[in-house]
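hiii, so i know i said id send this last week but things got crazy w the move. better late than never?? heres the sequnce for the chain we talked about at the cafe, plus the structure i predicted for it. fair warning i was half asleep when i ran it
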Amino acid sequence: MLKKVFTTSQIKKITGASRHESIHVPFYYAPPFLDILREQIKSLLSSSGGRPTIKGAEIVRKVRFSKKNWDELNRIAENFSKSGVSVSPAQVVSTIVEEIISSSRLIKKREKISRRVKVRSVGKVKAKGKERKTNREKEAEVIA
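okay and structure toks below
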């Protein structure tokens, strides 16, 4: 059964909407994330006889979860384990947390670079013998 896909303009016409806005869907709600997560876990797991462990994960801590979330993590782990590699719910969580932290670092780096670029693009303009601030320079002051 094929799903009918509508364009933005068709949806706008059908619903009578005057505008549309993009909605950010967190990565953990998106099914493609689970496919990527599965492959990432498989590539990180290494075994020396017992249960495979994630390479680079040195610290072991107890973390509390709600029953509902643990059951969902267990379901995901069981689903991943069907591919032949034994995956635990804790390994799923560990990989998700590592991905979130890595992504947030990347976002912060991009923001810093963006701020530096805006500050560097500031210049002075001479008007009738006087120096005055450009709009970009004013923006740079607001950002800083």
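btw The longest helix spans residues 89-120. thought thatd interest u
miss u guys!!
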